[in-house]
């Protein structure tokens, strides 16, 4: 039954891909090839790849560097920095680019795009790497030291090997986000596949050319997923045997302390200070009559849609996450990975596919909230998948044996043992989904019931007329809404190494 | 133990609350409501809202609006076909309306409404009606380029001497309407060359405002936009246009193109009467006055209705003699795709 | 009357057979230890009994009920056994009391008297009821796990290496407490272990397992004294083997002709001699002369390696009282206490 549910979820996630592929190849592969084989696509490919590589590299450097400073050195105020480097998750990338463009005239192009996306996405690397560094067994590093490796070579050889799975997982999220990013890049005049697909949609609603580009984007996503899987390999990084579960030691920074402090301060200022200052400045410009802006409806629909999507998405992750965490059978891994594919598509592509399906097959659902929530599920399921899988894996399967032996059937065992133990972890996944939904733009614009406005769409319509003062309250509301959730994420990453 | 219980309880409450309030509050913010007149609007939100509110007050007919862009919304109505939820469709430019008309999805507009509008803003089919008009302009930064250095024709922007100096919002429907005027006036080959120059020599911005702002901030010397963005900003604090001036091409140049915003009644709508009433209101003197009062600054199209006095009259713009109702949108898109702009 | 009966059990992990035609029966109220090296299939056997795993063939009876085999399959929660695993597997999100009452019907879960009674049974103070598992030592966790398993008064208790994760000192104390609690409950117990001392001291019956088969089962003294093969002999403790030949009630070997039961006919055999059976006398005394080649000193006793004079490579090991260990290189004479056990080649 579990397998059936996992197959169903995977099939739902594949639906948009099927629609896109069908549309792209509608008039034969020859025309598709023609649409694909042109200089514009080459330009988009170069831009997209450059952005993924540069932002990925920078995020890795900043994320791992910050995590090491915070978790493994005697940097003062580790608790504060830990929060500071997760908090950028509460600032959507397009709010960030709005902040930078409002502050720095002419802030645009590849440089601007790399800066903004890095500052928005490096926490995806920081969060898991910091959690890992905090929890990894110092025994291995001590062993390396005893084998004659100096502290730096120990960090390079043992440290990187240990950090690798977390780093790769974080980079995967960064890359998939970049592939699907629209708002920030559109604002910064940096065309990628996703912004070009949006242009195509704007001129032709459901154009073949847009579908061809979406297909190309999908190939990119598959490439990223494959690379990550290959890099992860089959190596084992778990602790073997009951080694010491001690707190790792903190390196003394000595004369490097001022430099370290300056670096973390600079990073925090760039990632948090700039958007905070920018939004704050525009908020306090009193020339705008704020009475005329009623945030209520936008906040309300954002919260309701976010909660609904978070709940449904988390539920949808369970079957595949369970199978993967418990059996790691090839089928399970495929079912899990399939759900990552559609999420790299821009929201508009998924939305158009669902519109086509709704118009064609379930007319009464057209332009209703359930279809929008389904789009959110398809777009954001990987975020919850990662955390749900980890949460399930963290519950020792032997505990369910114990519960079975005490007379509970599988269902009651799940309710009384597994669910309570997984709850915090899955809540973190749900929080990620909520944040993603609250900042989602393009699918919301297309699928939302007529008259429904979310914070993101309201922000976008104000900010695309470059009306910074009118956009600022929505940006602030978005940040305020996400802030408590990032705290939840931090908490759950603290607890992960419980076993 | 207690903490666990609280967590569990709150999760359950969340789930229950969702199923309850989910439908409630979405309905409140507007799940598609059969009792309201549904407008698909590609027009600006402030303008649509002003019309909708005034219409609602005058007639008591409730209105709900779905916003989008010209081309995508037109295509969306075509895709929705006979069962489109839309009752009324409003555009910024004529090509998208033509697309819907050619799909046979528009009802004929009431004769009384048509009579309210100047003839040149009404297509011969009478299946939609002009509701406002906007003029192409070149916004420039006098500190970067002097008035006498400006191109005489929009076509001259393709000349080498202007390379790197001009910009446009090439991705938007507004610009594509301008290109379709160029196509009709100058032919396919000249248009393709001009677009190639745009691709290699000009900067492409997200929209008209961003284009104007870039000129204002000195990132580009000239930009092709519609007139009202500039006039609106001038009427406010000139934040995005203080350093700029406008240049009109006039003389029947394609760059003097005046674009018609349209309104149509969707044929499949079962609220024909209300939909017709809405168009009648929009084109009435009261509806046309909104174009002045709401800092909209678009041109009025009603017979005898005045536009904002700050604007030069449509006649003085010497627009090219272009039939706005036969603009070939698909050809424009093909040419732009070939040029690598899309 | 047996409380647990396995007959003809075969089981396999994907693509690897683990158990082959295993028969075992455990008498009511008795304790059976399944002894074997890791990987021999003993945990799999326990999982089959518990119902965590389905056997490929064979039947499992708990009491008079068939719970697996012949088309019958009773899920673990319906089998009514108690189960304690290697690491206790206490539910980390529940207190000690909630862990103990986990398997009870809802109305009994608030019964603090029952919790106190069970804590006392396993030798833990009653104030531990409110603690969380991570506030307990390993030995305490195991005791709670046992209390949890006993709370439902199961007919059969399954123990899967419950003491192996504990420190030696804690291990003995915990084992004693567990044995006492189990005896008080008159439970039928199956203990799986790789520790021969644990198996021999804890159980009424020891079943020796090797490569998925039970090679021998019987009372501890019996299997220790008279194992059926060399492997079983070694798995139960230190053993020396001397090659010999039977003839007329005696076996002739490097230690001379020794009277051995079953030594009839003429054939080549191995003689099992446990180190504690060898007695070392002063050089030149009665017995075979030998030289000490190595000693291993444990404190209370020691193992002494001897080379018998005259015969090539005949090495023996003897256990001596620690302080009386002869030095390496010294000469001794060796005699055998009690009868060696004959193992057919």
List the helices and strands and how they pair.
The complex is a heterotrimer of chains A (499), B (342) and C (345).
Chain A: H1 2-24, H2 28-36, H3 39-72, H4 78-84, H5 93-103, H6 109-135, H7 138-146, H8 151-180, H9 183-187, H10 193-204, H11 208-232, H12 257-284, H13 296-326, H14 330-343, H15 347-360, H16 369-393, H17 397-405, H18 410-439, H19 442-447, H20 455-464, H21 468-495
Chain B: H1 2-29, E1 37-41, H2 45-59, E2 63-67, H3 70-80, E3 88-90, H4 94-102, E4 106-107, H5 111-116, E5 128-140, E6 166-168, H6 173-186, H7 188-201, E7 203-204, H8 208-216, E8 222-226, H9 227-235, E9 245-247, E10 258-266, H10 272-283, H11 285-293, H12 329-338
Parallel strand pairs in B: 1-2, 1-3, 6-7, 6-8
Antiparallel strand pairs in B: 3-10, 4-10, 5-8, 5-9, 5-10
Helix pairs in contact in B: 3-4, 6-7, 6-12
Chain C: E1 2-13, E2 16-27, E3 31-35, H1 42-50, E4 57-62, E5 65-69, E6 72-73, E7 81-84, H2 96-100, H3 112-121, H4 138-150, E8 156-160, H5 168-185, E9 188-193, H6 196-202, E10 205-210, E11 213-218, H7 220-225, H8 230-235, E12 240-247, E13 250-253, E14 256-259, E15 268-273, E16 278-282, E17 288-297, E18 301-308, E19 315-321, E20 331-336, E21 341-344
Parallel strand pairs in C: 3-9, 3-10, 7-8, 8-9
Antiparallel strand pairs in C: 1-2, 1-4, 4-5, 5-6, 10-11, 12-13, 12-15, 13-14, 15-21, 16-20, 17-18, 17-20, 18-19
Task: Kindly summarize this structure in a few lines.
The complex is a heterotrimer of chains A (499), B (342) and C (345). Chain A has helices at residues 2-24, 28-36, 39-72, 78-84, 93-103, 109-135, 138-146, 151-180, 183-187, 193-204, 208-232, 257-284, 296-326, 330-343, 347-360, 369-393, 397-405, 410-439, 442-447, 455-464, 468-495.
Overview features:
heterotrimer, B: 342 residues, alpha/beta, D-Maltodextrin-Binding Protein, domain 2, 2 domains, ten-stranded mixed sheet, 10 strands, globular, C: 345 residues, alpha+beta, Rossmann fold, OB fold (Dihydrolipoamide Acetyltransferase, E2P), six-stranded mixed sheet, five-stranded antiparallel sheet, 8 helices, 21 strands, 38% strand
